[in-house]
Amino acid sequence: SLADGKPVSLSPLESQPHSPRYTASSQRERESLEVRMREVEEENRVLRKQLSLAQSRSPSHHRGNHSKTYSMEEGTGDSESLRAGIVAGNSSECGQQPAVEKCETIHVAIVCAGYNASRDVVTLVKSVLFHRRNPLHFHLIADSIAKQILATLFQTWMVPAVRIDFYDADELKSEVSWIPNKHYSGIYGLMKLVLTKTLPSNLERVIVLDTDITFATDIAELWAVFHKFKGQQVLGLVENQSDWYLGNLWKNHRPWPALGRGYNTGVILLLLDKLRKMKWEQMWRLTAERELMSMLSTSLADQDIFNAVIKQNPFLVYQLPCFWNVQLSDHTRSEQCYRDVSDLKVIHWNSPKKLRVKNKHVEFFRNLYLTFLEYDGNLLRRELFGCPSEADINSENLQKQLSELDEDDLCYEFRRERFTVHRTHLYFLHYEYEPASDNTDVTLVAQLSMDRLQMLEAICKHWEGPISLALYLSDAEAQQFLRYAQGSEVLMSRHNVGYHIVYKEGQFYPVNLLRNVAMKHISTPYMFLSDIDFLPMYGLYEYLRKSVIQLDLANTKKALIVPAFETLRYRLSFPKSKAELLSMLDMGTLFTFRYHVWTKGHAPTNFAKWRTATTPYRVEWEADFEPYVVVRKDCPEYDRRFVGFGWNKVAHIMELDAQEYEFTVLPNAYMIHMPHAPSFDITKFRSNKQYRICLKTLKEEFQQDMSRHYGFAALKYLTAENNS
């Protein structure tokens, strides 16, 4: 307390002036202590002034050794002055430098490619958003995969005062493909070298981050460091915290040239305008060409080339305090960067082992990382008060739609769900699909929540074709799913399954939104609209592909019906043929689906006819019909007004009929519903009268919409409903 100039608490003496212990001797001791305290405060003030003067006069300060930089910039003076609204500095003139303006936009560039890196980016962005108080502009250099994933994610995330721009990483490959690189990041690990060319020419400065970074402070503090650059300093970097560039890790270890320990490029401050004037592009290319003649390839991607340039031109670097890039690699010296949790600002998981890296405090770092990994991203949709946001058409349309709803309507929550924008992360796991040459491929489409995860392995064993799944999960559940999938040999052996996470929001299960998400992201011309509780018969995938050709689905509006059955047994010897299934039906081991509670749902399939059918046969639509069908990918979407339990499939089949789809039952296809506990939504439907009233209201409104849209032909739906 004496050292940082704050008053020392004298409460034990002050609070009891009349106690027996409060003697003349105590009074003298107190006065003596106060005098000494004032002396220490004055000595500290003079010492701080001398330090500031010494720092401002020393031309080598920014390039001084690492420990000096840390001791000058990590202490309370730095953080206190930042909080006081000025940029903490290395000279007395910094008191006049403005801090980051309240609404100043902070620019961040990230190179991201592939499915796994897209997941990492989300955690990094969460940590930045959690602490930020300024508008942010992310510049994402992404391949086509990452762009599809992240564009959808940010579009559905709708975070205020955040702008996203994408730059095609694939177009930049030719700029760096001539450089052999052994690093696991591949060609994308070299793309930070070309940011001066890639980013807009009017962008003056940018913070560049690796995807394996976690922020523990407001990124504005790092942005403020740009004010400290002097002379020809154009790169802000933290010293490398391993011995890699010292060349003593193993016998005959020969790293690229570097200044001392070299610098780590996981966090970079780039003064783009000055770099362009210095002809950075020419500078790094000439250096790389020269060094590659002897080194043959890079080992640490762009970092090797940055360091080789700095070795030749040390004046380019402003050395950041090491807490701006605490590197958790093997053999790291990062523990010297912090004495307390409050010292940490940026954590860098720069080991291929990531969370399994060896470090004395790795549990603490891992918990900090997991906090953001599992943090509810919806909570980060916070307004920046006082900062005008750019007009967002999607957000404005949403607000307009919501404002037109009557909040006093007893069905308001149902109606509101139709317009809720759910944050969506497409292709959460690696996905590969090779299109079939005969153009007959079929994707199984389904949706699920956490309580149905156990069905995934069984479905994968029954269906070898592509699958598109929408999973309704919280952020924490998404990580549980990831661990489950990565621990499953069955799921990890399948790359043709697209897992699309739709994050939880609101009180209803948005079943039809989930179906639409899964339908929208299929790669095949046809899809089998199933549910997660059904196991398709063995061989159904190949049978459907043949049926697609046989029934000319490409040129006709048909919906091919796969008859549905159910078992009440958790352990079932799955029938391997239609004959075996019929035998089980006769024995009472299997039943036609929902025959005992909702006969109308599948009665039009005509199971009696199916028993002896050997060729496909046509059936007519009837009220409440909800079969499972194979259709072309251009079929209409499901109606989002139906959430939870009730009428979600019925409405879709009705719309197919209105669009004159022909319903054709496949004679040698079947699927079996496996037993499970009742869902939360069916429980609400059964127990909540208002739920049933609202469902009836939505149903009537849907039928009226059908009449308006399809005219006279749709009157039969009203008539059929009245008769049923």
TrEMBL record:
UniProt pathway annotation: Protein modification; protein glycosylation
Keyword set includes RNA-binding: no
Catalytic activity: 3-O-{(1->[3)-alpha-D-Xyl-(1->3)-beta-D-GlcA-(1->](n)-4)-beta-D-Xyl-(1->4)-Rib-ol-P-Rib-ol-P-3-beta-D-GalNAc-(1->3)-beta-D-GlcNAc-(1->4)-O-6-P-alpha-D-Man}-L-Thr-[protein] + UDP-alpha-D-glucuronate = 3-O-{beta-D-GlcA-(1->[3)-alpha-D-Xyl-(1->3)-beta-D-GlcA-(1->](n)-4)-beta-D-Xyl-(1->4)-Rib-ol-P-Rib-ol-P-3-beta-D-GalNAc-(1->3)-beta-D-GlcNAc-(1->4)-O-6-P-alpha-D-Man}-L-Thr-[protein] + UDP + H(+); 3-O-[beta-D-GlcA-(1->3)-beta-D-Xyl-(1->4)-Rib-ol-P-Rib-ol-P-3-beta-D-GalNAc-(1->3)-beta-D-GlcNAc-(1->4)-(O-6-P-alpha-D-Man)]-Thr-[protein] + UDP-alpha-D-xylose = 3-O-[alpha-D-Xyl-(1->3)-beta-D-GlcA-(1->4)-beta-D-Xyl-(1->4)-Rib-ol-P-Rib-ol-P-3-beta-D-GalNAc-(1->3)-beta-D-GlcNAc-(1->4)-(O-6-P-alpha-D-Man)]-Thr-[protein] + UDP + H(+); 3-O-{beta-D-GlcA-(1->[3)-alpha-D-Xyl-(1->3)-beta-D-GlcA-(1->](n)-4)-beta-D-Xyl-(1->4)-Rib-ol-P-Rib-ol-P-3-beta-D-GalNAc-(1->3)-beta-D-GlcNAc-(1->4)-O-6-P-alpha-D-Man}-L-Thr-[protein] + UDP-alpha-D-xylose = 3-O-{(1->[3)-alpha-D-Xyl-(1->3)-beta-D-GlcA-(1->](n+1)-4)-beta-D-Xyl-(1->4)-Rib-ol-P-Rib-ol-P-3-beta-D-GalNAc-(1->3)-beta-D-GlcNAc-(1->4)-O-6-P-alpha-D-Man}-L-Thr-[protein] + UDP + H(+)
GO biological process: protein O-linked glycosylation via mannose
Composition bias, Polar residues: 12-26
Region (Disordered): 1-78
Family stated for the protein in its record: In the C-terminal section; belongs to the glycosyltransferase 49 family.
Protein name per its UniProtKB record: LARG1 glucuronyltransferase
Source organism (scientific name): Baryphthengus martii (Rufous motmot)
